[in-house]
Amino acid sequence: SHLKDDIMPKYAELVYNGFWFSPEREALQALVDKTQEFVTGTVRLKLYKGNVTVVGRKSPYSLYDPVIASFEDDKGLYNQADAGGFIKLQALRLRTLGVNRHKML
């Protein structure tokens, strides 16, 4: 789950209920402000028949690196075998659920 998705409903609830000056809303605002500290740049859009398409983006703080993104010659920055471990870790709860359900049958 993304942090934004977790805090957005609570922030909206505080504002809706009139707690704009509450310590809770101010604490969440500080969190939002910190996460947006390096969010800046330019996005180019293409508008056509009611659709919007991102055709370019640029930021001085961008983490995008075409060498890493290609996964071809990344000079050892990324080991594709790492993905297998991540996938297994994420699937562990589902495998455990399947084993437990199978035992119940």
Q: How do you describe this structure in short?
A:
The protein has 105 residues and is α+β, with helices and mostly antiparallel strands. Helices cover 53% and strands 14% of the residues.
How does this model look, in words?
The chain has 4 helices and 2 strands, in the order H-H-E-E-H-H. It is an alpha+beta fold and about 100 residues long. The protein has a two-stranded antiparallel sheet with strand order 1-2. Helix 1 packs antiparallel against helix 2 (about 25-35). It is about 55% helix and about 15% strand. The protein is extended and about 50 Å long. Strand 1 and strand 2 (about 50-60) form a beta hairpin.
Write the layout of secondary structure elements.
Layout: H1 3-16, H2 23-35, E1 42-48, E2 51-58, H3 66-70, H4 81-104
Antiparallel strand pairs: 1-2
Helix pairs in contact: 1-2
Which terms would index this structure?
53% helix
Largest sheet, described in full?
2 strands, antiparallel
How confident overall, as mean pLDDT?
A: 88
List the total number of helices. Answer: 4
Q: Specify the overall morphology.
A: extended
Radius of gyration: 22 Å
